[in-house]
Amino acid sequence: MTTPDLRLVPALPEHVDLWMAMRDEPVSRRLMPLEPSTRESLLKRIQESTADLSDPKATSFRWMVELDGRIIGTVAAKELSRFQGRIEIGYMLSSAYHGRGLGTRAVGMVLERLFEWPFLHRVWLTTAADNLASQGLARKLGFTLEGVMREHYFIEGQRKDQQVWGLLRSEWEAARRSLRLSP
Length: 183
Ligand SMILES: CC(C)(COP(=O)(O)OP(=O)(O)OC[C@H]1O[C@@H](n2cnc3c(N)ncnc32)[C@H](O)[C@@H]1OP(=O)(O)O)[C@@H](O)C(=O)NCCC(=O)NCCS
Hints:
This protein has 183 residues and is of the alpha+beta class. 30% of the residues lie in helices and 34% in strands. The chain has one domain: Gcn5-related N-acetyltransferase (GNAT) (Aminopeptidase). It is built from six helices and seven strands. The protein has a seven-stranded mixed β-sheet, sandwiched between helices. A hairpin with a 2-residue loop joins β6 (144-155) and β7 (158-168). α1 (16-23) packs across α3. The chain is globular. The protein starts with 5 loop residues before the first strand and ends in a 5-residue tail after the last helix. The site of coenzyme A (COA) has 22 residues, from α2, β4, α4 and α5. GO terms for molecular function: protein N-terminal-serine acetyltransferase activity; protein-N-terminal-alanine acetyltransferase activity. This is Acetyltransferase, GNAT family. It comes from Archangium gephyra.
């Protein structure tokens, strides 16, 4: 059996409909605090982000996740502060590909790239308290649950607790060794 070929590719305007469809899946709507959006607003977000980490002015980054030539998800990193050495990440896969370790691999690939910035000290993310897959992914990649913002999310008419998770550079180095991402 061959290992599926998982790659990150830059998010492009042509990916907007796939991204919209993923956001519209019931599992995404149930677990993510998605603000109302339009095709135009998502296109603008793609156009305002880049996958070029060498761009000194960029603060918002987005990749699509490609499996054997098919786009199956997206990973973003936003609100980079070069001064503070921190960035926030977010991620989503199409539900047909959940629970196969692909989310962990794709986000791991993004972390690998982000920590190439020598100034980066910390990556953080938020997730709903009932999003067990996202929490499993975060834990596997070495993140620590740092706190809870009570009833911070409003999702499908319900208030939900928001968890904040953080990953320091030293913790990433330990996690990537245990994930065998590096020698
Ligand atoms: C969150 C998401 C990206 C995770 O990706 P994934 O490929 O499904 O997750 P993985 O298969 O890599 O699983 C990571 C860990 O979480 C655990 N996990 C996965 N799905 C789970 C579930 N439904 N319930 C409990 N644990 C789960 C896995 O067991 C795994 O740990 P293990 O390898 O030690 O068993 C994906 O499920 C998704 O896109 N969900 C909808 C959108 C979303 O919630 N995005 C995140 C918003 S914060």
